[in-house]
Structures are given as C-alpha cells and as structure tokens.
Write a structure and sequence with these properties.
434 Repressor (Amino-terminal Domain), about 55% helix, 5 helices, about 100 residues, globular, mainly alpha
C-alpha cells in the first residue's frame, strides 16, 4: 500500500497552492499511483511525487507531463507555471 502524502497547508504560498492544485488534479483523475503515472509521463514516480510536494517548483516539462497524465488543461497549467517562474510569485528554483 502506498504511503500517504504529507498534508499541505496552502496558506499564503503560491508554490503550496500550486502543489495542492496538482494533488487535486490527480484526485480528480481517479487518484492514480505515482508509479502508474510514471509509466505514462516518462518521469520517475519520485519526481512526480516531488512535483506535488510543495517544496520546490517542478520544471515546466515535469509539470506538463503530470498535468497531461491527469487530463488537465495544459495551456492553463503552463500559464500558472510561467507566472511562478517570472517572479510574479516568488519561489525557489525548479527541481528535477
């Protein structure tokens, strides 16, 4: 049985809201395991889990692979990612 993800409190952090929304997208997609997502996304399960971890902003390509596998709107998520990277929302540099 997979481990439960640590809870996120989005509070005032744009990065944590981004991660929380990635998790919600995954839930809407039926809650696939990160291992199952990894097969389709061509990223490791660990990278996908870290993308929704809220500690660092995932790369653009990892974000879009996550969103694609979960059936999300790629253009909308890319726009959100670009806003975070542009400095409109300060975050630590991308991971992975």
């Amino acid at each position: 049985m997979p481990r439960r993800e640590r809870p996120l409190d989005p509070g005032d952090s744009d990065l944590l809201r981004f991660a929380t929304d990635l998790r919600r997208l995954r839930e809407k997609a039926g809650g696939p395991s990160y291992r199952a997502m990894a097969t389709r996304a061509h990223y490791s399960a660990a990278s996908l889990s870290e993308a929704a971890g809220g500690r660092r902003l995932p790369t653009r390509s990892l974000t879009l692979a996550y969103v694609r596998v979960c059936g999300g709107n790629l253009a909308e998520w890319e726009q959100r990612w670009r806003r975070l990277v542009s400095g409109a929302c300060p975050v630590r540099r991308p991971c992975c």
